[in-house]
Amino acid sequence: MRIRRRRSKVIKVGNVKLGGNNPVVIQSMAKTFTSDLVATVREIKELQKAGCQIVRLAVRNNKDAMALGKIKQCISIPLVADIHFDKNLAIKAIQSGVDKIRLNPGNIYKKNEVKEIAQAAGKAHIPIRVGVNSGSITRYPLLNNRYPKDMAQTMVRCTLDYIKLLEGTGFDDIVVSLKASDIFTTIKANQMIAERCNYPLHLGMTATGPTFIGIVKSAMVMGRLLSEGIGDTIRISLTDRAVQEVNIAYNILEALGLSNSRPGIISCPTCGRCEVDLIRLVKELDKRLSANSYQLSALPPKVAVMGCVVNGPGEARAADLGVAFGKKDGLLFRKGKAIRKIPFSKCVDVLLKELNKCVSLSRYNNSNYK
Ligand code: SF4
């Protein structure tokens, strides 16, 4: 099944396009102090290697703002400045050459301040993300520190107000996000805003909790919204290393058939019929595939790794590439045809070599592996 995406306005963040028919973009946020140039550039490079396409940095003070220009010179993915409370930091970030800024309507909302930032962003030809967050929305003037009865509706109202404020200054280079720590609120708010404006949507949740529950919540929210065609870029928030966020984002897109950056793995859970250490093999294959991201022009190839002959040959035949294990050896399948036996110890190397052939073919021929 192919997902029909909501057609939003196309917004450029550096050399990356959000919205329209462009692929869903993976982004993340560095966890270093932005003013720590060495650590921040190191983390951004790690993120990029894992497949991150846009990176955001927290700008808390002048020291952070001053570091942005230097960081930008050391990296090759678009840089977003995350601004709260202080409009002067927004102006400094824009002047330092960032590719987008994020404003929080819960703490920068005065008309004259928003106008000044919009004019600076307009002059620099960079977009602004209206980043509404349930945790800070109560500061928004219309709420007067009251917690709203219907958070999703309030977030939508706040977003539309802010869009109007920006559009009133002649600025419409806008991306929006509505994030809550509750899955139902996040889903409802995004479904509602998707119908009320045509700006690209940045999907995410906030404050998701420990890693595993954070992954589950994120997959539920992103899975629901993306399968409805809603969402142009995603950031997975985890109380964990940023590179994990990128890996989970990739896996969610891959599961939905929305990724064109890595081959996908299908593998069985193993059971008493499996006579090889399939769990170790699949972990190694995943690790080695995750070490590279590709920009494929077609759907990435799928590889099936199965523990025995019960479901093994069937799954292996249905994928572009597959292996079904017997006692020690596996039977290699290519496009449904049994090719040859391979020993367990050589399996990962053989699959990677075969996958590289698939990737080259889909990269250059605009078709899947033949
Ligand atoms: Fe068990 Fe075989 Fe199914 Fe794997 S494919 S779960 S080993 S029956």
Question: What is the gist of this entry?
Answer:
The protein has helices spanning 37-50, 62-74, 87-95, 111-124, 151-168, 183-196, 211-227, 242-255, 278-290, 312-318, 347-365; strands at residues 11-13, 16-18, 25-29, 54-58, 79-83, 100-103, 128-133, 174-179, 202-203, 233-235, 264-267, 302-306, 321-325, 329-334, 337-343. The protein is of the alpha/beta class.
Describe, in plain words, how this protein is organized in 3D.
This protein has 370 residues and is α/β, with parallel strands linked by helices. It folds into two domains: 11-255, Alpha-Beta Barrel (TIM Barrel), CATH 3.20.20.20; 264-365, 2-Layer Sandwich (Sulfite Reductase Hemoprotein, domain 1). Helices cover 41% and strands 19% of the residues. It has eleven helices and 15 strands. The chain has an eight-stranded parallel beta sheet with strand order 8-7-6-5-4-3-10-9. It has a five-stranded mixed beta sheet with strand order 11-12-13-14-15, sandwiched between helices. A hairpin with a 3-residue loop joins strand 13 (321-325) and strand 14. Helix 3 packs parallel to helix 4 (111-124). Mean pLDDT is 91; it is low at 364-370. The site of iron/sulfur cluster has 12 residues, from loops.
